[in-house]
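Example record used in the benchmark description.
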Amino acid sequence: MKFLLSKNRGVFLSFLLLFLTLKIEALEAGDFAPKFSLPDLLNDDVTYSLEQKKDFLVYVDFWASWCAPCRLSMPALEQLYREFSGDGFYVLAVNVDAIREDAIDFLKDFPVSYSVLADPKGIVSQLYNVIGMPSGYLINRKGKIVYSHIGFRRGDEEALRKMIRNELEK
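Model output (C-alpha cells):
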C-alpha cells in the first residue's frame, strides 16, 4: 500500500508540475472572440450577448471595482463610446466582482452610458483567458479580435481610438 501511495504521489506531483509550467495566454488579435451572454449589472431581467452586437465594432472590457487602472479606463471608454457610438461602435463592460454592490458603488463614482454586465463567477473572463485588469478586446463585425490590451495608463486610449477609427472605416 505504501508503494502504491508513493507512486500515486509521484504521478500527482508530475501532473502538478506539468500544469504549473503550462503557459496560459490571453486571447489576442487574430483569434475569434468567444460568444457569451450575461445579465445587465443593474437589472437581471436584461441580458446582453456578443451575438446581439454582431453588426457593431465591439469593445469588450473586463474590469473590477478593486482595479486601480479601471478608474482611468472607464472614463476613457465612456469618451470613446460617445465619440464613435453613432458610427457603429459599442462597448460591453464585463464586471468580475463577486459582490455586485462593489461594482455598483464604483459606477456611482465613474458613471458610464454603455452596457455593464455582471460576470461574478468569472465564466466569461475564463473564456477570454483574462490575466489582468482591465483587459479589453476590440472585436470586428466578423467576430475576430483585432486589438487586445491588458492594463491601462493615461494615453492608452489614443491607440484604441486609432484602432476604432481604422476598423470603422473598413
